[in-house]
Amino acid sequence: MTTQEQVPLAPGGPGPLPDEVLRAEHISKHFGAVTALRDVTLRLNRGEVLGLIGDNGAGKSTLLKILCGFQQPDGGRILLNGEEVTLKSVMHARSLGIDVVYQDLALVNELSVYHNMFLNREEVRWPLLSNRLMRRIARDHLDEMGVNIPSVNVPVASLSGGQRQAIAVARAVFGNAKVLLLDEPLAAMGAKEVAMIIDLIEDLKRRGDVSIIIIAHNYGQVLEICDRVNLLQHGEITLDKLSQDTSVQELNDIVIAEYRRALDERQRSA
Ligand SMILES: Nc1ncnc2c1ncn2[C@@H]1O[C@H](COP(=O)(O)OP(=O)(O)OP(=O)(O)O)[C@@H](O)[C@H]1O
Ligand SMILES: [Mg+2]
Fold first, then answer.
1. What mean pLDDT is predicted for residues 197-219?
2. Residues 6+ away with beta carbon under 8 Å from 246
3. Does the beta carbon of 239 lie inside 6 Å of ligand 1?
4. Do 58 and 232 touch, CB atoms closer than 8 A?
5. Nearest residue by C-alpha to atom 27 in ligand 1
6. Sheet of 98-101: strands edge to edge?
7. What is the model's pTM?
8. Distance of CA 250 from the midpoint of ligand 2 (Å)
9. Is 235's C-beta closer than 6 angstroms to any atom of ligand 1?
10. 61 ligand 1 Cβ < 6 A
11. 56 alpha-carbon distance from chain centroid
12. Which residue minimizes the CA distance to atom 22 of ligand 1?
């Protein structure tokens, strides 16, 4: 059953839709015989945090990789601020204000926190900035975002997973990302680290100028952080609901029902 059509409401209840910052329409993606994405239509409103959930292999990362320019879709189109765009690369998407934080983060472990903050950020004219200035800007920026690390001088390798994740997010925002794509930022993290990332996302939400898509497996966390949730099953969005209109129970029930159906089908065809 597809419940997507039943929920045309904007976060906060009925009324006109707020500005749509990003829209993916009828996106498909195949890897040889594997259909990763069949026909995905997804929208992201300005200032919204959208949770993307689904089983392992459902196509979540593939969708994010397409939205950040890392992979090209086989079909469908992407609209940014209402205009169709072809995202040629991650750098290209970044120049348009879409940035991604992968699970492996793409930070350089051997470099200091502040060097990482300025890495590949041509717009801030590194390396023309002096180390002193970079340190100060990085410190100010992390303080402003409430990212708690001992010093910007320490190598990233000496930080915890949560601190690294926070720096990757801060770096993306520092680079003026208007759309932030986070692939499982809460995976394999302790309670304190999870709290730190959640605080960071809450801060961004309050600022209102950054829109976020976040992939996560913990439905409780998703409903806590996100305004809206999309469920991806077999390469299609099968549920699109405001967080306030769904529950961990409902999401669990849908996924378990789907599992039972697949099991029945396998047994019937055996
Ligand atoms: N580069 C690739 N080459 C071949 N197949 C791929 C590639 N990337 C993804 N796939 C396949 O596409 C499907 C979707 O994968 P994807 O990584 O998007 O899933 P996911 O929803 O992110 O899963 P998980 O929750 O485990 O991270 C899977 O069947 C996967 O094996
Ligand atoms: Mg994934």
1. 87
2. 223, 229, 239
3. no
4. yes
5. 56
6. 98-101, 179-183, 211-215, 49-53, 228-233, 236-242
7. 0.84
8. 22
9. no
10. yes
11. 16
12. 61
31 CB under 6 A from ligand 1? yes
Tens digit of each residue's pLDDT (9 = 90 or more) over 97-155: 998 887 656 677 788 888 877 776 644 555 566 778 888 888 888 887 777 788 888 88
pLDDT for res 268: 87
Q: Which ligand is nearest to the CA of 57?
A: 1
Pocket lining: 58 vs ligand 1, CB cutoff 6 Å: yes
Q: Ligand 2 centre and the CA of 220: distance in Å? A: 18
Altogether, the residues listed in the chain come to a count of 270
Q: Encode pLDDT of 156-207 as tens digits.
A: 888 877 778 778 877 877 777 899 999 887 776 777 777 877 888 888 888 8
For ligand 1, atom 8: residue with the closest CA: 62
Q: Which fold has domain 17-269?
A: Rossmann fold (3.40.50)
The domain spans of the chain are: 17-269
Query: Which tokens belong to 38?
Result: 């069949």
pLDDT of residue 192: 74
Q: What is the rounded CA–CA span in Å between residue 50 and residue 181?
A: 10
Q: Which helix (H) or strand (E) holds 258?
A: helix 248-269
Ligand 1 contact via 27 beta carbon (within 6 Å) = no
Residue 209, both tokens: 């100028």
